[in-house]
Structure formats: C-alpha cells, structure tokens
Design brief:
Blueprint (H helix, E strand, L loop, with lengths): L9 E8 L3 H10 L5 H13 L1 E7 L11 E3 L11 E8 L1 H28 L9 H18 L2 E6 L11 E3 L2 H7 L3 H30 L4 H9 L21 E3 L6 E3 L1 E4 L6 H9 L4 E3 L8 H9 L8 E5 L1 E2 L2 E2 L6 H15 L4 E6 L5 H4 L2 H12 L3 E8 L4 H11 L4 E5 L9 H9 L3 E5 L14 H16 L6 E5 L3 H6 L10 H14 L21 H14 L2 H9 L25 H12 L4
Parallel strand pairs: 9-10, 9-18, 10-11, 11-14, 14-15, 15-16, 16-17, 17-18
Antiparallel strand pairs: 1-2, 1-3, 4-5, 4-6, 7-8, 12-13
Helix pairs in contact: 1-2, 3-4, 3-6, 4-6, 8-9, 9-10, 10-12, 15-17, 18-19, 18-20
Bound molecules: iron/sulfur cluster (2 copies).
C-alpha cells in the first residue's frame, strides 16, 4: 500500500505505530479462529514500540503514513505551505467495507435466503438481513466515489489524517479537469456498475452459503415423477360427470368427482372440468401462494352461478391462528373474494383443524356470522385430517354449526371410520372426501405400472361406494385429469377394483403414513408430529408439491433432525409397519435445506 512518499527535506526522528482501535476491532471481528487475547497483546506491544524513521521536515509525515506517526512535533495545524485540494478515502476503506458487505451477505443474506426458500412465513421474515449487507456494500461504493477538499502538504503531498485520506491521483485529476458533465456521467456510470456488481456479488455470497442445497435441488428439479396415469385410455376421452349428490343441509347438488385446486396453474383446466359437469370447486389462499384462487377466479368468469365454491379461513402465508381478531379474519376472506372475482363463497372451511378448541374458536364463528349477514359466505365447514380427526368430526357434528365436513377418507379406513359418516348423514352434514388416493404413489411404482392407469378410478369408486359421502375432491392440475377423473363418476365398485386396491396396499406397505392415524405419536421421545412430517414428505416426494411440503415443514417448532441421535422408542409402534425413524430422517433430508 503506498501512503505517499515525502519529496521534501527529511530528517530521522522517533516514530511510533498509529493507534488503530477501529482496525483492531474489525480485525478481531473478522479473524475467525484468532483468539481475541492474542489481538489485544499485539495491540499493547504495538503501542509501546518506538522506531527511527525519515520524517518530512515540513509536515512531519512519515512513510508509510498509514502505519506510523512522528512523536516529535505538533501535527496538521502547524504545517506550512498547505493548500486545499480534492482528497478521497483510501482504497482499503472501500475494500474493507466491501469485504464486510460480502461477508454479511454470506451470513445474514444467506440465512434470509434459506428461510425464504424453505418456506418461512414471509410476513415474519427479518428483511433487515437483506438491507444491512446491501447498505454496507452501498457504503463501500460511496466511499470509492466520495471526494472532499482538505489541506494537502505541498512538500510531501499528504493530507491529514493520512491513514484515511489521500489526494486524488493524476488520473482522477485528469478526469476532474476534463469537464463537469463528463465527470458526472463517468461517476454515474461507475456508481451504477459498482452497485450492480456489488449486488450480484452479495447475492452470490448468500447463495454460496446455501450450497448444501444441491442434493435437495437435484431431487426437486431432476427427479421425474409422473402426475398423471402413465397410459391414458381412449375411453376416457370426453368423460363427463354422471352423478350428482346432495351436499347435506346446503341442499346443493354437487358433482361426485369435484375439483381440488392445490396445484392448478391453468384456468383452462378448470374451465374444461366445468364443461364436463364438475360443479364443486375447492380452493384456499395458501394453495400455491394464492395462485389457486386467482386461477379459479379467471376460470369462473361468466359461470359463477354454476359452481359451488369453497375456500378456507386463511391467508397466503398459512392458516389463521385461533385468536385472530374478527376484522382480520373478515379481511382475509374479502381478499379471497377479490382473487376469486366474486361477491360470495358458498362454503368457507376452518382450515386444517386439528383441535376441538380451534373448531370452536369464538372469533372464527363470529367472523363467519358477520360474513353470512353481509352475504359474503353462505355455509360453514371444517377440513381436517389430523390424528384427532374423529374427535374433531364428532364435535363438529354435535355443535350443530357446521354444514359440511371435509375429511381424509380412502380405502382401508372402513369400518373404523364409517360411523362418523353415518352420524354426519343423520345430522344432514355434507361430507367431502379428500386424500382419496392414499399417498398417490401409483404412477411411480414400477411394479404397478400396468395397473396404475386404473388405480385412481378404483380408489374413487371405493370412496363413492359409501352413500354417506357427498363428493370427493381431487387435485386437477393437467388437462389429462379432465378425462381421467370424471370417468369414474357414477361407477360402481367392482371386484377388480378391490383387487387393485389390495395390490396397491401390498406394494406400499410400510411406506404410507395415514396422516390421521397418530398411533405412534405418544411414543416419540421428542414429541415430534410424526404424521405431519411424513405427510409433508408425501407432498414432496409423491405429490411433487415440493415447496408446499418444505414450507409446512419449516413452520414446525422442531424438525426430524433429532431422530439421528434418538434411540427410537417409536420403532414398531406403527400398525402399518412404517419404519418411522428411517422415514423421518429421509423427510428431514428432503424437506429442510442445510442451514
Ligand atoms: S426416532 Fe424420531 S420419531 Fe422416533 S422417537 Fe426418536 S425423535 Fe421421535
Ligand atoms: S407412522 Fe404409522 S403410526 Fe405413525 S401416524 Fe403414520 S401410520 Fe400412524
């Protein structure tokens, strides 16, 4: 580093090191692995060292002026022959700030990026983690461009404090002398380029911190998972809904196969489903980050009166807590109405209800009553697939306020679950079945490939063979679904269907966690919600709802990483033979990004 060489007469004098408290503090901060005590000892020794060096007789500057200062005379104010000239901050100040900005981008920006990609609730993300590094990088750019006017020694060409500022060099002087406009333009271009390059460097640092994501990204982008039946059959073409059922006390007649929209991207899929006779649309603000509601809003234009529309009490970031103020709940529903481009929804569910306290939360009920009075919502429902499903469903029927229940229901649940559906029927509560494909692994089981095309329809016929089910909701995301799913409408369950479903069970034994089972939960040494974790794994691996699975997993207060060091008291507690510890570790591997 050249701090300027004195060109005037010089004499040898005593000098000492400059006090660099700020430099030492920064050094200690950034020198990972260097113990602070070593740094302090070094600082104390440096404070007492005296050397003899050539010193400028005119201004007492000693070279390098950034490192030493004269002990013999007074300083700047006593200098002779000094004129004010442009000076700039030394290059190392900018470099230090820039390095700090990049380092902060790595730490803070990387951490923020991690939370963002993993699906943390965006409204709670600490955005200061982006602003702080960006501000420091901007400061570095500012330091590089800053020009001041300070007294400069004519003899040695140094300005005080010499460790911090230096007169602008010949090149700068040339530019400075070549016209104000050109200087402003050049500086502007330089600043814009520097800010852009710095922002890219900061982002690269944040991404680099998360380089451990590579395996998850491979799973995310490069694993090919089918979402439709592998061999579409010609007889499906143009399939239409053949059966409509009464949805409990709502008195609405709805298609037995109905449209779920968790993964819908294309309004044309919903329009075609409507043309084929599907009349019940199910959506929620947190499906695909409100995209589901927006797509359905587009698809329903001009057809709103033909559709029984259901959404949920929630926002894009997730479910509303039980104690959410009533105006906030109403505001959330009004936002849904805007996205759906309608004045009202037919049905609104208390979403993913896992406890009776949530089911009966007074705020939710008061909000619904007000929405109903205003004509913005017609009926109240509850959706649940938790281990407390039976408890929640019983309470929903008993309290008399719920018109519809949306329940996880698939083959293999009878007869343990049948009595709830009978009770719902007796109280005229409509039942909408979900999770009907029992993990939807059929399209990706190599040994099941020949039968897979018939699987969804066999599974649907099994669900609809129960007359107490009003309809089932299945996720339509591709045009093929418009042929594939309605083909099962109105069909009777057959012996080949049952054989197929049993074969699916054999092939997936030990791999499917019934989210509503919960038999293993009490055995977990860390109180992990095993059923939820494995459901999110299913979203990632089988449904290919990767982001949704990761977002939900990130919200858990404790992840499955703890399974690695656990003695696994959960082993052999699963009636379905799921190897819980192995699956939990696998879930953690795909659902969490290394911190
Ligand atoms: S292995 Fe995991 S799921 Fe099983 S008991 Fe331990 S922490 Fe719980
Ligand atoms: S792992 Fe087994 S016992 Fe635990 S919730 Fe899933 S199906 Fe039930």
């Amino acid at each position: 580093m050249n701090y300027g060489q004195c060109e005037g007469p010089r004499s040898t004098q005593l000098v000492r090191f400059r006090a660099w408290p700020m430099g030492i503090a920064l050094f200690a901060l950034f020198a990972n692995g260097v113990r602070l005590s070593y740094v302090l000892v070094l600082a104390v020794v440096a404070a007492f060292v005296r050397l003899r060096r050539p010193v400028c007789d005119a201004c007492e500057a000693v070279s390098p002026a950034g490192l030493f200062r004269s002990l013999t005379k007074a300083r700047t104010e006593e200098r002779t022959s000094q004129a004010k000239r442009p000076v700039q901050l030394r290059v190392w100040v900018g470099i230090l700030l820039f390095a700090s900005g990049i380092r902060l981008s790595y730490w803070l920006g990387g951490s923020l990026l991690h939370d963002l990609v993993e699906g943390g609730q965006r409204s709670l993300l600490p955005l200061w983690k982006a602003w702080v590094p960006f501000s420091v990088v901007l400061l570095a750019v500012g330091v590089g461009l800053l020009r001041l006017r300070r007294p400069v020694c004519d003899a040695c060409n140094l300005a005080e404090p010499a460790w911090l500022v230096r007169p602008v060099g010949n090149r700068s002087a040339t530019v400075a002398g070549s016209g104000t406009t050109r200087r402003v333009v050049l500086r502007g271009l330089g600043a814009a380029g520097a800010v852009g390059a710095s922002a890219v460097a900061g982002l690269a640092a944040a991404v680099f911190r998360n380089r451990g994501w590579v395996p998850v990204a491979n799973d995310f982008f490069f694993t090919n998972v089918e979402k439709t039946a592998p061999n579409p059959r010609p007889e499906w073409n143009g399939a239409r809904i053949k059966s409509y059922r009464r949805l409990g006390r709502t008195n609405a007649l709805v298609s037995d196969i109905s449209l779920g929209s968790g993964q819908i991207n294309d309004a044309e899929v919903a329009r075609r489903a409507l043309e084929r006779g599907v009349t019940y649309f199910d959506t929620a603000p947190d499906y695909s980050d409100t995209r589901s509601e927006r797509v359905l809003g587009e698809a329903m234009k001009g057809h709103r009166d033909k559709i029984f529309l259901a959404t949920k009490f929630c926002v894009a970031d997730g479910h509303l807590p039980d104690d959410t103020p009533v105006p906030r709940i109403i505001e959330a529903v009004e936002s849904s109405l805007k996205r759906l481009q309608t004045d009202y929804v037919d049905l609104i569910h208390i979403h993913s209800c896992d406890r009776v306290e949530r089911l009966l939360a007074p705020n939710m009920h008061e909000a619904f009553d007000r929405l109903k009075e205003q004509g913005k919502a017609r009926f109240l429902g509850v959706s649940t697939h938790t281990p407390n499903l039976e408890q929640v469903a019983n309470a929903a029927i008993d309290c008399g306020r719920f018109d519809v229940m949306m329940l996880a229901y698939h083959f293999g649940m009878w007869p343990s679950f049948g009595h709830i559906l009978e009770k719902a029927k007796a109280h005229d509560v409509g039942v909408v079945a979900m999770k009907t494909l029992k993990g939807a692994k059929h399209t990706n089981l190599a040994a099941f490939r020949d039968e897979a095309s018939a699987y969804s329809q066999a599974a649907f016929r099994w669900v609809l063979s129960n007359p107490n089910v009003s309809c089932l909701v299945i996720s339509f995301s591709q045009l093929q679904h418009v042929d594939e799913y309605p083909y099962a409408s109105g069909g009777a369950l057959t012996h080949p269907d049952m054989a197929l479903l049993r074969r699916y069970d054999e092939l997936t034994a030990g791999d499917y966690c019934q989210p509503h089972c919960g038999a293993c939960l009490a055995s977990c040494a860390y109180d992990l919600p095993v059923n939820d974790v494995l459901r999110y794994r299913m979203y990632f691996k089988d449904y290919r709802w990767e982001k949704e699975g990761m977002r939900l997993y990130a919200k858990l207060s404790r992840g499955a990483a703890v399974c690695a060091g656990c003695a696994a008291p959960c082993a052999r507690t699963c009636p379905l033979g799921v190897p819980i510890q192995e699956k939990m570790l696998d879930a953690h591997g795909v659902l969490s990004l290394p911190a």
